[in-house]
Amino acid sequence: MNSKNEDDPERARTSESVKRRRGENSKKLEHKKQKFRNHITAICKVAFDDSKIASGINLGRTKATSIVKNVIGKNHSEEIANILKSTYFSVIIDESTDVCDSKSANEGATAEKIFDELLKAFNESEIPLDNIIGFASDGCNSMMGAWNSVSSRFKEHMPGVYIQKCICHSWHLCSSSACKTLPRACEDLARDIFNYFKSSSKRISHFRGFQDFCNVSPYQI
Hints:
- The chain is mainly alpha-helical.
- The protein has helices at about 1-5, 10-30, 35-45, 50-55, 60-85, 110-125, 140-145, 150-155, 165-180, 185-200, 200-215, and strands spanning about 90-95, 130-135, 160-165.
- Strands 1-2-3 form a three-stranded parallel β-sheet.
- α2 (about 10-30) packs antiparallel against α3.
């Protein structure tokens, strides 16, 4: 087999490509994406063993996180701030799932606190508040209440701002209400399928292999 590869450069390159992909996929299945950074340099050194640059790379999880946070992240933040300084834009606020241990709005997610943090972020980046022309959020009281909310504070400080409840949240509420008319078994089946694949890289890998075998478009669970 080796002699054939040596006689056929194209076949040799294909073989090496397959080995690299196999190694990459094995690491992806073995480790979560967040921890994959610790192994990418080792993969590069094996995949590109003739490269002096690859052999000299040392990039662990801590260093990669620091680069993303303090270099790439800051650079993108500055680019976005420069754009917002010279154009009109709207603000959309929503709660997000965060697994980090950094405190955010630690004094409570009140309307006053959220609005103050928002203004603080714009002022620190020297973004003119006059450039804000719209605000959208879900319909909770802290965001869209008539008197003591983020939207009421927008109206008070920026009278010309257009206020809009997020259409995606409205669609979600409508869909959720409509689903109540369906049999409970339908929702249970959908949840069971999701939970079956959710925490198992092996099952997801088997599912992808099954889709390839059936020659169907890949779907992500």
